[in-house]
Amino acid sequence: MQIENTPKKSLGQNFLIDKNIINKIIEIGNINKNKTVIEIGAGYGNLTEAILSMNPKKILAIEKDKKLSLLLIKKFENIKNIKVINEDILDIIKNRNLNNNSLIFGNLPYNISTQILAHLVTLNKWPPWYNHLIFMFQKEVADRIIAKPNTKEFSRLSVLSNWRLDIKKHFDVSKNCFFPKPKVNSTILSFKPKKNNFFHLKNPKNLEKVTQILFSNRRKMINKNLKKLFKKKLFLLNELNIDLKKRPEELSNETFYKIAMKYETLSD
Ligand code: SAH
User: Contact 56/77 with Cβ under 8 angstroms?
Assistant: First the structure.
């Protein structure tokens, strides 16, 4: 592979160069000719090429870096079912719904990987336009996403993603599989939207707010932060029987969802 311009750290550019790993990632998607695939951060198109070899109906390759997107257009100029989009994925997710039932791959730019996931979980329309996400995260972030309550990794990210997604861990990927080599190892996770989610919120932003405030000081008991959220209406939580002396990591996922539902009633 020829590297024509210096990889940009600011865009999280660590290109996957290990063919075996690329193929193992692609296999997870069960790509066939009926599937529309979206790739976040296509880079030099290493993953893109492997996706194309499975003959999907269509690929949208999203790449923020102008130079790389021009390179991708050139590389795939003779291929009809690919469209290169030179835009920021966060703007795309915020502003439009892409193809229904699409499968999204992403060796994500690490500086915004959690933002990308949070944006995809908190879409207003649910079930969402995508039906399968296959993402690479740095290992520590993946550990926080899959963490269970009562562990030190349990975080806003676990609460948020478990709210609407079924999550699966596939395998770890050594930092040696990338160029330039990052400092940390990575992990592949996949996500499928839950169709019926019991904890219905009118506005997903309320769960973001509740988790942000409650996890803002993990070592502190939750009573102060709950007062911050509910002010004089803390009594609304009475029926949830929450022990206010607990720390945020000791609450179950469901408790966070129930708190968010109560929080929502404040603005009625
Ligand atoms: N998929 C490629 C590249 C992964 S590196 C591979 O595995 O080799 C991450 C890629 O995401 C880089 O090409 C980077 O330019 C791109 N990127 C970074 N921020 C982005 C954003 N906000 N929107 C779209 N692409 C972005």
Answer: no
Domains in the chain with CATH codes: 9-193 (3.40.50.150), 205-267 (1.10.8.100)
Pocket test for ligand 1, best of 8, 9, 10, 15 (most atoms within 8 A of CB): 15
Residue 127 CB-density burial (10 A; 0-12 exposed, 13-18 middle, 19+ buried): middle
The string of DSSP letters for 44-56 reads TSHHHHHHHTT--
Nearest CA to ligand 1 atom 22: 88
Q: Tokens 């020829």, residue?
A: 2
Taking the mean position of all CA atoms in its chain, how far away is CA 89?
A: 12
The atom number, within ligand 1, closest to the CA of 65 reads 15
Helices (H), the chain: 19-28, 46-52, 66-75, 89-95, 113-121, 139-146, 156-164, 205-214, 222-230, 253-265
Ligand 1 pocket by Cβ (under 6 Å): 11-16, 40-44, 46-47, 62-65, 68, 88-90, 107, 109, 112
- The string of pLDDT tens digits covering residues 184-194 is 999 999 999 99
For 71-86, what is each residue's pLDDT tens digit?
Answer: 999 999 999 999 999 9
pTM, two decimals, is 0.95
* Residue that the structure tokens 């296999």 belong to: 27
What b-and-e string marks burial along 81-91, b requiring 16 or more CB atoms within 10 Å of the CB? ebebbbeebee
- Cα(49) to ligand 1 centroid in Å equals 15
